[in-house]
Design a protein that fits this description.
The chain is mainly α. Among the domains are: 75-132, no CATH class; 148-218, DNA polymerase, domain 1; 228-287, DNA polymerase, domain 1 (Orthogonal Bundle), CATH 1.10.150. 52% of the residues lie in helices and 3% in strands. The protein contains 14 helices and four strands. It has helices at 11-40, 45-67, 80-86, 90-101, 109-116, 120-126, 134-142, 145-150, 165-168, 176-187, 207-216, 235-238, 246-258, 279-282, and strands at 158-159, 217-218, 228-229, 286-287. The chain has a two-stranded parallel sheet with strand order 1-2. A two-stranded parallel sheet has the order 3-4. The longest helix is centred in the N-terminal third of the chain and has 30 residues, at 11-40. It starts with 10 loop residues before the first helix and ends with a strand.
């Protein structure tokens, strides 16, 4: 049998065979690289979930900014979040919060700019919506004559630690529910309030209503407190203070060790996670060596 005829190819046939072999090699290499790269690709599910949450949060914030409408407000109580929506920078917001934490009040548009250092252009946008308490506006118009009629003298004020529900209801904005809530909160502590700033912890009381309460009431018989020495306090001692949990207590102690003690109480504002708006309440329980 002549086998030679089965393995004899023309030039065109040989070229076709080589082309077919080349295509097979290319396909094999492509499959190998694609398959190996897919094996190396790994997805971190926890990071993926975290990324989606951040994306959803940014979308939500964008929608809120688009739908945000400015209403009249007291500029003393601008929060971090509201300040951001209003277009204030972090530095401007912090200046305002620190000013309030020093127990000072902004009573005019000019004073707001002086404290926050906002630009003239931003002030022109914000100022029309400022709403200061009525007694401040009255005092400006009458050079203080109406203010004397609105705010009782210290002698005339009623002790907040002995005030009755009926007496509290004489304040505009304090009904029976809020009056009862104030008394119940006060009575949780043997001896009552340390200072009127603790009214901020009563649920449902706005800062405007608290201002009106302070015009008629003050803490004349404050509860006695064994203050804790900040530079010697342990975590166990710090967690007994309102608004300080275990994590915050740890951060307070760590900051103290790293900075070789606190020099001023307001250094607490630099501690990670510290509730800035509760500083005036927390410092009632602390003592600096």
């Amino acid at each position: 049998m002549n086998m030679k005829s089965h393995f004899t190819f023309t030039k065109k046939q040989r070229n076709g065979i080589f082309l077919l072999l080349a295509i097979i090699v290319v396909l094999q290499c492509t499959y190998f690289f694609i398959n190996s790269s897919s094996e190396d690709l790994q997805v971190n599910n926890s990071q993926w979930v975290h990324f989606n949450k951040e994306l959803d949060s940014l979308r939500s914030l964008k929608l809120e900014k688009e739908n945000f409408k400015i209403k009249t407000y007291n500029p003393n109580y601008i929060s971090d979040y509201k300040g951001t929506l209003l277009g204030m920078s972090n530095e401007e917001i912090n200046r305002l919060i620190n000013y309030r934490n020093s127990n000072k009040w902004i009573n005019s548009v000019d004073q707001f700019q002086e404290v926050t250092q906002v630009s003239d252009s931003l002030l022109q946008i914000l100022a029309p919506y400022f709403k200061f308490p009525d007694w401040i506006n009255a005092s400006k118009k009458s050079n203080g004559s109406k203010l004397k009629n609105t705010v009782a003298s210290s002698f005339e004020k009623i002790d907040l630690n002995t005030a009755t529900v009926l007496e509290l209801q004489t304040v505009n904005g304090v009904g029976q529910v809020l009056a009862n809530r104030i008394v119940r909160f006060r009575n949780k502590f043997p001896g009552g309030f340390i200072a009127s700033i603790q009214l901020q912890d009563v649920y449902g009381l706005s800062m405007e209503v608290i201002e009106r309460i302070n015009q008629k009431f003050e803490v004349k018989t404050p509860r006695k407190v064994d203050k804790i020495h900040l530079n010697r306090a342990t975590v166990a001692q710090l967690v007994t203070i309102q608004h300080i949990d275990y994590d915050l207590a740890q951060n307070i102690v760590e900051y103290r060790l790293f900075n070789e003690n606190y020099k001023k109480l307001n250094e607490l504002l630099k501690v990670k996670g510290f509730p800035v708006n509760k500083f005036d309440i927390i410092k009632l329980y602390l003592l600096l060596d």
